[in-house]
Amino acid sequence: MRLALIARGADSTPVLAVLIGDGLLLDVGAADRLFALGLAPAVSIKALAERGDEGLRAVRAVVAAVESIREAGHDTSKVTIAEETAIFLPPVPDPSKFLAIGKNYRAHLAELERNGLIREMPDEPTGFIKLNAVIAPHRGYVRRPEGITTFDYEPELAFIIGKRASGVSADQALGHVLGITAFNDMTAREIQKREVETGTRFWTAKNMPGFGPLGPYVVTLDEVPDLSDIWISCAVNGEKRLRFSTRDQIHSIPTIIEHFSRYIPLEPGDVMATGCQEGTAFGQPNAAELFLKPGDAVEVTLEGFMTLRTHVI
Prior knowledge:
313 residues, Fumarylacetoacetate hydrolase, domain 2, globular, alpha+beta, five-stranded mixed sheet
């Protein structure tokens, strides 16, 4: 399934939606009520993760029922909305933890080292905390901070924890994942460089409001043939800037889960981002031309799954 959190109604209430084909999003809760299905599906993606397998079964049952109703020729327009007009919210706006895995692609590690943005090469997964205030939606607007001229993009694959993971081994890890989504780990490079030079570990450079566009969908793992072969690309104003495969990751998703769940429990709805490859603006000889400016539109694509669009103001 392709799950989304969208705003509906006069008060823009967040509702759980599923993409049901031909560009339509199904409001799962509204469908359950309108057609008296009695399945009581979860009201958000985080709530769905917290309900585990039972939650997924309820949502799938609603989708199956509505598809049967549509095939029988009945009107379902009251519970569907066109994808192009939907108001997307971040799929998980309030995770208990948002962990970003850094230094997870060798070429990007070398790029960071050349530019003075890391001091050591790690031999195990490393990460940092993203604040919930950074999370921004698909088609959202992100403000470039005043005085910042080195505003950069980092397209990444992120995943959502679906079952509590504590001390989980790598071979069990994927059973604790709900699905994948797109993430743009936007960065103020000049601040990042100062933080590295001074030994600061808070990462203000990556934790300013809106610096973490996420979404638009969470694709459940049953629709992902191979997590180790997902192509990720980034374009600015339609110009392709970089493209890479998760095959180049140093640490896979199972390894990441095994490592971090050894120390802290990963809870349903937690978000984890898996890092970026080389090719962002700061590593290029013409970086000044490539850094993001007001008016730019940035697209992060998980090829075959979704595109996350962000507008810079």
